[in-house]
Amino acid sequence: MRSNKINYVLVGIFVIAMAVVLVAAVVTLSGNSGATDSYHAIYRNVTGVKFGTQILYEGYPIGQVEEVTPVAQGGGMRFRVDLSVTEGWQIPADSVAAIEAPGLLSAIVIAVSEGDSKKALKPGDRIESREAENLFNVMSSVAEQIKDIAVNDLRPLLATVNGTVATFGDILGEEGEALIAELGALAKELSARVPVIVGDVEDLTGQLQLTAGELDKLFSPNNRKTIEGVLGKADKAVGSFTEFAGELRATRGRLDQLLDSIDTMLIDNKLDVERAIVDLRHVVDSVARHIDALNQNMEGAARNMHEFSRQIRKNPGILLGGTAPEDQAAQGN
């Protein structure tokens, strides 16, 4: 009897020890074996996220999901996910917590991508979140798009191609021999013209080479300097012409002012100008009436001056009041 009691005690101790080991193992595996800091994130879809979902920081396990709570926000539902992270773990303020599946058959995890901020989040702060991409939904959407393309685009395209091929086959069956004969004649004609075309191409290439050589000579260093000098002089000439044009504009402005002044003067002195014109007309009429007498007097004066000049040439002493010298040759005879 005593032996049975001892056995029961040993079995009980063993069961209690195994229970303690099991609890310790569960706590260790859950990553919640020590003190933790709490954070939270807000998601629109938390498929696969539940209590115990592992939290990875750049692939390293740092905690687990403690609770998922629905929250009414903006006329819809959002889900607050409370995160339990190893105490003292520094998470940059611009880090992002995304719902991911590391592999095709792997369990869902919360993957925290490290940010670049020098400022760390405080316990209780919210971590920026990013929704999970459902691979199966994406594949289903792609499959639907492929199906739509196949039904609405590929099938009509294949029908059109089949019709075109059938039409082309009918054409070949009816006019195939004539078409082949024409193609043969065209090929012969091209074969005959190919040497001529090649010769023309060679001539053109030679001319292009000569032209390139002439251009090289034209743009030699010395010629380039000359051209640059000419362009510089042309720039100066353009500048001078611009200045000249400006001066012309200024001169035109002054001429406009002068004409305006003359116009104003004529308008202001219109009566005086008319009187001067009347007087001038009277003077011209008077001169016209006496022009004949003036001409006769001028002709008489000219004849007298001519006679006076002849007398002076004949006897310069007349200017001094003397008489003409005697002709000695006449007296000797």
Q: Could you please describe the fold and organization of this structure?
A:
The model has no long low-confidence stretch (mean pLDDT 82). Strands 1-4-3-2-6-5-7 form a 7-stranded mixed sheet, with no helix packed on it. Helix content is 63%, strand content 15%. Among the domains are: 103 residues; 47 residues. The protein is elongated and about 205 Å long.
Task: Please specify the SSE layout and strand pairing.
Elements: H1 2-29, E1 36-43, E2 54-57, E3 60-73, E4 76-86, E5 96-100, E6 109-113, E7 128-130, H2 135-218, H3 221-268, H4 270-314, H5 328-332
Parallel strand pairs: 2-6, 5-7
Antiparallel strand pairs: 1-4, 2-3, 3-4, 5-6
Give the total of beta strands: 7
Helical stretch tally:
5
Task: Give me the side-by-side strand order of the main sheet.
Answer: 1-4-3-2-6-5-7
Relative strand content: 15-25%
Secondary-structure element string: HEEEEEEEHHHH
Helix content: 55-70%
Q: Unreliable segments (pLDDT under 50, ≥5 consecutive)?
A: none
Question: Which class best fits the helix and strand makeup?
Answer: alpha/beta
- Biggest pleated sheet: 7 strands, mixed
Radius of gyration: 61 Å
* Distance linking N and C termini: 221 Å
